[in-house]
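Annex B. Sample input.
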Amino acid sequence: MSKMGTGAFWGLLLIIIGLSIIIKIVFNIDFPIFKILIAFFFIYLGLKILFGHSFRPFHSCKDEHTVIFGERVFLKPEHGREYSVIFGKAVFDWQHFRPDSTGGQQIDVKINTIFGSTEMVLPKDMRVRIDASSAFGEARMPNGN
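Annex B, continued. Sample output.
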């Protein structure tokens, strides 16, 4: 399984276990959750073996600036562009990008991450200003701020 596939699997597993506990406590309904989870795991594993890498139960969004339930690497910033990462992972690898290729113009981008992960890889000599905020997550900067 890929890194995101593994994360989605464990995330769904924990959600199902939590929901089964709530149903058991609130409605006093008992069902064999672990047997059902094992059955779904074997079905998933069988489909993965049959279809190989082409089988992806959680597809990324078709918009090339949005990542939903998937992973994507962005190699070049686009001025004025807004990127969104929802339940996924995005890596902005701009260490080979040089601002002088834009005529020294400032590049503004906005990156939204909701229940996901965003990583920025920048060259040490690039001047950047990052305003980070977080909803249902955390924002960490290299200097600990």
